[in-house]
Amino acid sequence: MPLKDPCQKQACEIQKCLQANNYMESKCQAVIQELRKCCAQYPKGRSVVCSGFEKEDKENLTLKSALK
């Protein structure tokens, strides 16, 4: 039996917030930040819902390195 994703609850909260706010990401920053906090607690690859943030972080690091 696969392990439950530790950040699934926060991901669902983001979806609810986005739906309630006509998909305006700016209105959901607090719940997005909660998901980021959850993701930071676990090693990379542990949470499937965090994979988008992990990819975003990697791209940001690559961009910063290129700008130096």
Automatic annotation (TrEMBL):
Protein name listed in UniProt: Cx9C motif-containing protein 4
Disulfide bonds: 7-38, 17-28, 39-50
Similarity annotation: Belongs to the CMC4 family.
PANTHER family, per the entry: CX9C MOTIF-CONTAINING PROTEIN 4
Keywords: Disulfide bond, Mitochondrion
Location (main, coarse): mitochondrion
Keyword field contains Mitochondrion: yes
Annotated GO CC locations: mitochondrial intermembrane space
Subcellular location: Mitochondrion
Lineage top rank: taxon: Eukaryota
Originating organism: Callithrix jacchus (White-tufted-ear marmoset)
